[in-house]
Amino acid sequence: MTVTVPYDLAVARYEPVIGLETHVELGTLTKMFCGSPVTFGAEPNSAVCPVCLGLPGSLPVINKTAIEYTIRIGLALNCSIATWCRFARKNYFYPDMPKNFQISQYDEPLCTDGFLNIEVDGQEFTIGIERVHLEEDTGKSQHVGTTGRIHGADYSLVDYNRAGIPLVEIVTRPVPGTGALAPAVAKAYVSELRDLLRSLAVSDVRMEQGSLRCDVNTSIAPAGSGEWGTRTETKNVNSLRSVERAVRSEIERQAGVLDEGGRVIQETRHFHEETGKTTSGRSKEEAQDYRYFPEPDLVPVAPSREWVQEIRAALPELPAARRVRLQAEWGLSDLDMTALRNVDALDLVAETVAAGAAPDQARNWWLTELSRHANDTGAELADLAITAEDVAAVIALVAAGQLNNKLARQVVDGVLAGEGSPAEVVAARGLAVVTDTSVLSAAVDDAIAANPDIAAKIADGKVAAAGALVGAVMKATKGQADAASVRQLILERCAANLAAAWSPAGGTSRPLTTLRRILSDLSAVCRRTYVFPQSKRDLPAVESAKVAQFFTERYPDFGVPRRCRSPTVVTSGCKTQRRGRSPLE
Amino acid sequence: MAAADELTTMTAAEMAAAVAAGEVSAVELTRAHLDRIELTDVKVRAFLHVGAEPALAAARSVDERRAAGRPLGPLAGVPLALKDVFTTTDMPTTCGSKILAGWQPPYDATLTRRLRDAGVVILGKTNMDEFAMGSSTENSAFGPSRNPWDLNLVPGGSSGGSAAAVAAYQAPLAIGTDTGGSIRQPGAVCGIVGVKPTYGGSSRFGLVAFASSLDTPGPLTRTVLDAALLHEAISGHDPNDSTSLDAPVPPVVAAARNPDVAGLRVGVVAELSGDGYAPGVLTRFNETVELLETLGAKVTEVSCPHFTYALPAYYLIAPSECSSNLARFDAMRYGLRIGDDGVASAEEVMSLTRATGFGAEVKRRIMLGTYALSSGYYDAYYGKAQQVRTLIIRDFEAAFEQVDVLVSPTTPTTAFPIGERADDPMAMYLADLCTIPSDLAGNAAISVPCGLAPENGLPVGFQVMAPVLADDRLYRVAGAVEAALDARRGASFLAQARGLAGLDETAEAGR
Ligand SMILES: [Zn+2]
User: Dihedral (C-alpha) A527, A528, A533, A537: value to the nearest 10 degrees?
Assistant: First the structure.
């Protein structure tokens, strides 16, 4: 057994070259060559017909939508679209292939010679796309027995629901020059490709459901030799993380082989999620001869230039352009955007924002709380049991003061634990902040009454002193109050107390709400962050006059302060009459 | 017997007219043919399966339709023998192979459906060379059919069962498939009309493929008009077959009703004559060319230099496609399964089933095709063969610039004895020498009886070839030949068949 070389050592001495073949199941309504529905999880062999079962006499007919989707992919990958091409038969025997040949494309693919730009650690790489072609998927075998493979199985079951689903294969050119970044480049490519396919609305691109499948080619050669080594093809790489791990593990393994003076064998290898290692599969040296020849049951495909142009014109905004736009709309930093992409949260944030949340809030939730949760459980963000709508709902509850941050986290935990929607979790766990004004008011009143000296400080304009009263109220409500609201309420209560004294009728008849409105308007007018005009000394004469004018115009029914009948009086009169006291009094 | 004789010896057009006029019911007509099959098929062995029940049910529905005053198609109530290569939901489909013995398809071929819709009564499924590979029906896993002219002779193939059924008056109509001559060659050696329409003229959906780019369904009948009526009934675009033509059906029935060759330019293919052709075949062929001239046609000799390469090209292209088409017969989903003892692997079962289930000729062609498609050989074999195919198409195009139709003998010889060529594939393949070019080029061709070879008294076929989608020209020429020869003879062509009388005697003695 060859010893693997630690990654850093391996890439210090060897230069990797990678290549990727990606299979994407298209999300068409019907299969590639028949009218059977494209489904997942249906009862085995229920979505089949004579054509996709390959019954004698049946004939394929090309699904035009599948051709359109493939052209869409080709155009988005900057490929040339063939003016004329044919399908071919790939002949080999396997029980999950109903006809024992697969209708595919061989030397006449629909799309050729494109590229996709990706970014890793701020470094841009251009991945050459050799070809994009269309074929049909096979059925799914289930081998019952100890080995789990066809050899050694007691018996095997085949489900042909998948047989005939349109499958696009996207093949890159070999990618040299990535050095130690090879695994990251491979992952970034698949990630970018997935985003691209999703934006094109041609597939649901769920790697775990197998609608996006990757084969990773890896070779290494001594650094500086300028040569390329023998490549292996690693199959069964079915998550972004696995793509990275598979390349890494192959580099380490191949370095071990070369270090021992061995020779890398051109072969198919299988990737194992559990160990992160690859094991040898079929050797290419005993590779099958697929005996490709043009499919005689189909006519050539010749997409008109007009049609291709129509498809091009209808292409949606592609991910790279979309990221630029979203960043501008959201006002997030490059660092934030990279972080969001790294955890694959861009769409989630976009959906959260679309559901009404503020972009920075959406970013915060997905990047911190939810990313931590995903990390802890080893899941992808998108697979968490919480939707963008849920997150937006939590953010809205916080904004409305019905949750504080601490409670919000508990709500999110509840949603993640499958306890229902945020509203349901709030209800079930009794997590809402105390918004019952009578309860809060009582607590605030108690706090003010219990701390007359602090209340006096506030009345004197020392707003910071409110913190002590907030703490008292929070304690009294067992943390279920929103601190900001409590603070607001304390200040309002103090203001109301002052206003009561200030109003001509003694204040008791004046509705608190009106006062609240006045106070908020006042702070806007003052352009300073006065919660309420704390001290006449803080008001420059001009502003003070403005305040008085605003006050009388806006609230004529409220009356004007006693002894302050005109704006001019406000400045002078107050000064003389209420020296040493709150200017509002 | 006499009454039944009258019913079975009418032409299809006459039968349809009689049914429409209420002179005979479709059920009576069907019964008469079922009886005839029962009496004669012990000798002829044209049928692999007779579906008396479904046939009578179909006939009853035609009678009901007529009784209800609803319109009937031009072939409603007329019995037909269907080559066992088309899927049928009410009868098995075996393709003459053990590997499909007893297979009951869950769907009707488009052609089957069209026949049913036209009110045609399908009597049963006819014998054929296994998967349509052969020229004698000797490759059928269920034994050969016999030529009604002489039961010791082959009826041709691969649609030999269909041809024999029509020649033996078991059915006025039959459907065959032509891949290398499989309609025209049995038509010629059984003394009946056989038509290979333009490729794509009628649907292949539900036709179990031998060579996809060549397979063409077509009629086998006793008269040119009957062929045209059946041709029309099965033709037209089918969205389930990508290779079916989306073009109007050529006016074949009109052409058959008004055959006229005055002014028609007829080209005799220089390459399809000479060494290897039986003298009697050439005699009758040349007489027929002269006949056409007397009818006003302008005859010239035309050279198609690449026709000489047609046979080898065909024997690379057809086996290549068949090697892939027949891969699906693997015991996994339907048909024969051998060696599934609970221990053997799927691969072993596949291999054993195919080894047991396929006959020698099928295996030979699968091997040949697999070889021709293999990497390293593809360009030299399959690739070259496709180039030859293009050259043959160009030969036709050039010829059809000079003439309206091309003519040749249908086959180099008349019917040969059962067993004579069974062990000599090359000799067997030569039976298709004249028919293969039209298959490779995809154009239309017909074989019409043109007399008996003087040396053995067996029927000779006269082949007419027309450009793609000019199928109506076939009927103009064949109709004219048929009319002139019938007039000269004063009797139907088949009346001369020695074996037919023998069949009746045997049958009556057997009663
Ligand atoms: Zn299907």
Answer: -110
SS3 for B66-109 is HHCCCCCCCCCCCEEEEECCECCCCCCCCCCCHHHCCCCCCCCC
| Other beta carbons within 10 Å of B443 | 25
**Digit-coded pLDDT (tens) for B372-407:** 999 888 999 999 999 999 999 999 999 999 999 999
| Confidence bin at A338 (pLDDT 50/70/90) | confident
Query: Do residues B135 and B318 lie in contact, with contact meaning Cβ atoms separated by under 8 Å?
Result: no
CA A290 to chain B, closest CA, distance in angstroms equals: 8
**Chain A contact for B1 (CB, 8 A cutoff):** no
CA distance A242 to A104: 27
Residue A402 clears pLDDT 70, i.e. is over it: yes
CB contact under 8 A, B239 and A61: yes
- What is the DSSP track for A360-422? HHHHHIIIIIIHHHHHHHT--GGGSS--HHHHHHHHHHHHTTS--HHHHHHHHHHHHTT--SH
Instruction: From chain A, pick out residues whose CB is under 8 angstroms from the CB of B204.
Output: 59
The torsion angles phi and psi of A113, rounded to 5 degrees, stand at 55, 65
What pLDDT score was predicted for residue A377? 87
Ion ligand 1 contact residues with beta carbon within 5 A: A 34, 36, 49, 51-52
A89 contacts B328? CB cut-off 8 A: no
- Please give the CATH topology (third level) of the domain spanning B3-260+407-501: Amidase signature (AS) enzymes (3.90.1300)
Quick one: pLDDT at residue A399?
A: 86
Nearest CA in chain A to B85: A57
Distance from Cα A427 to the centre of ligand 1, integer Å: 49
Of the CA atoms within 13 Å of residue B421, those in its CB half-sphere come to: 22
Q: Say how far apart CA A120 and CA A368 lie, in whole Å.
A: 22
Which residues does residue B176 pair with via DSSP β-bridges, in sequence order?
A: B218
Low-confidence ranges of chain B (pLDDT < 50): 1-2, 507-511
DSSP string computed for A315-349 = ----HHHHHHHHHHHHT--HHHHHHHHHTT-HHHH
CA atoms within 13 A on the CB side of A307: 15
Residues of chain A with pLDDT > 90: what percent?
Answer: 50
Identify whether B492 is preceded by a cis peptide bond (ω within 30 of 0). no
Say how far apart CA B112 and CA B493 lie, in whole Å: 29
Q: From the CB of residue A470, how many other CB atoms can be counted at a distance below 10 Å?
A: 21
Say how far apart CA B479 and CA B221 lie, in whole Å.
Answer: 13
The mean of the pLDDT values for chain A is 83
The strand pair at B173-178 and B121-126 is best described as: unpaired
Ligand 1 geometric centre to CA of B456 (Å):
53
The answer to whether the Cβ–Cβ distance between B346 and A62 falls below 8 Å is no
Bridge partners of A233, per DSSP, are A217, A268
Q: How large is the ipTM? A: 0.95
Please indicate whether, in this complex, the C-beta atoms of A55 and B105 are within 8 angstroms of each other: yes
Angle between helix B2-9 and B26-44 (nearest 10): 90
At which residue do the structure tokens 């075998």 appear?
A141
A170 forms bridges with which residues in the sheet? A22, A132
Condensed to tens digits (0 to 9), the pLDDT of residues B202-240 reads 999 999 999 999 999 999 999 999 999 999 999 999 999
CB contact, 8 Å: A423 with chain B? no
Please state the rounded mean pLDDT for residues A388-395: 92
* Structural tokens at position B187: 């038509």
Say how far apart CA A533 and CA A424 lie, in whole Å. 42
pLDDT tens for each residue of B89-147? 999 999 999 999 989 999 999 999 999 999 999 999 999 999 999 999 999 999 999 99
Give the confidence band of A286 by pLDDT, cuts at 50, 70, 90: low
Distance from CA of B190 to the nearest CA of A (A): 28
